[in-house]
């Protein structure tokens, strides 16, 4: 009876010891280690057949259980790290894709900006060319209109000059002379108006013949002057700026000495420059 009571107390003591070992918990710092402890507890509670039919958990010591729990925690942490690493890799790939799209969009925007700037520059250049060309055309049209008007007035001026010359060659009364003087004043005023518009008279009497401005209608022998000198002017010529509106009708002399060639202006300038050092030496 006493022996049976002793065995019963021993069984109760062993059962309480086993329950205390099963109730041992390993402190953890985070949720991953807690899960590892749960995995270790589950593994410890699972019966494994061994020699004599006893459970493997009963044969594991406290140190082995701690090592198993640590390994399970490390595996769980490693798996969690792998998951987070894969997520980080996916996020990095997505960010790189977005960055590439942003760079492509930026390059496209820069190209459009450069194209717009080039187009604006070309349009500005075209506008400047159009403005200058239009201004030049307006000036040319005005000059052509003025030339047309002046050319139409030239025969009228010729008639007034012939009338004045003919009247002055006749004997006239005082009142008629005053009338001729008035007509001469009108002629002078008309010529001044044309001069204000850039019209110049070509009256080359006694000047060398210039085929670009003079129209020869006859030749006169005169050994007293150089050959090809304008003798008489039958009709005056007119120029406007660099354009000849009408050539002067003249007669040209012949039989005289050859006109000497004009000396170049550079030679005169060289002589003048050469003379200055001599004057300074004196």
Summarize the structure.
Helices cover 66% and strands 12% of the residues. It is mainly alpha-helical and 282 residues long. Mean pLDDT is 76; it is low at 14-32, 46-58 and 272-282.
Key descriptive features of the protein:
282 residues, mainly alpha, Nucleotide Exchange Factor Grpe, Chain A, domain 2, three-stranded antiparallel sheet, three-stranded mixed sheet, 66% helix, 12% strand
Question: Would you kindly provide a written description of the structure presented here, covering whatever features stand out?
Answer:
The chain is built from 6 helices and 6 strands; from the N terminus they run αααααββββββα. The chain has 282 residues and is mainly alpha-helical. Among the domains are: 30-47 and 59-73, no CATH class; 153-197, no CATH class; 199-260, Head domain of nucleotide exchange factor GrpE (Nucleotide Exchange Factor Grpe, Chain A, domain 2). The strands form 2 sheets. A 3-stranded antiparallel β-sheet has the order 1-4-5. A 3-stranded mixed β-sheet has the order 2-6-3, with no helix packed on it. Mean pLDDT is 76; it is low at 14-32, 46-58 and 272-282.
Query: What is the CATH topology assignment of the domain at 199-260?
Result: Nucleotide Exchange Factor Grpe, Chain A, domain 2
Task: Output the structural class.
Answer: mainly alpha
The CATH first-level class of the domain at 199-260 comes to Mainly Beta
- N→C terminal distance: 165 Å
Determine the CATH superfamily of the domain at 199-260.
Answer: Head domain of nucleotide exchange factor GrpE
Strand order of the largest sheet: 1-4-5
């Amino acid at each position: 009876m006493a022996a049976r009571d002793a065995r019963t107390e021993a069984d109760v003591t062993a059962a309480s010891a086993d329950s205390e070992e099963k109730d041992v918990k390993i402190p953890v710092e985070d949720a991953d280690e807690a899960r590892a402890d749960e995995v270790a507890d589950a593994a410890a509670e699972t019966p494994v057949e061994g020699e004599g039919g006893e459970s493997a958990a009963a044969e594991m010591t406290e140190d082995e259980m701690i090592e198993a729990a640590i390994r399970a925690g490390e595996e769980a942490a490693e798996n969690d790290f792998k998951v987070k690493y894969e997520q980080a890799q996916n996020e990095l790939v997505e960010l790189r894709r977005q960055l590439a799209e942003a760079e492509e969009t930026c390059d496209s925007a820069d190209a459009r900006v450069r194209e717009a700037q080039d187009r604006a520059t070309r349009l500005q250049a075209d506008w400047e060319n159009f403005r200058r060309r239009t201004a030049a055309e307006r000036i040319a049209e005005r000059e052509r209109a003025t030339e047309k008007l002046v050319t139409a007035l030239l025969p009228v001026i010729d008639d007034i000059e012939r009338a004045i010359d003919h009247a002055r060659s006749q004997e006239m009364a005082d009142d008629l002379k005053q009338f001729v003087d008035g007509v001469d004043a009108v002629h002078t005023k008309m010529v001044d108006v044309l001069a204000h518009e850039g019209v110049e008279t070509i009256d080359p009497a006694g000047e060398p013949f210039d085929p670009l401005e003079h129209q020869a209608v006859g030749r006169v022998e005169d050994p007293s002057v150089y050959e090809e000198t304008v003798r008489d002017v039958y009709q005056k010529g007119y120029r406007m700026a660099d354009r000849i509106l009408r050539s002067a009708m003249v007669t040209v002399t012949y039989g005289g000495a050859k006109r000497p060639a004009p000396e170049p202006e550079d030679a005169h300038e060289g002589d003048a420059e050469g003379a200055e050092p001599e004057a300074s030496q004196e």
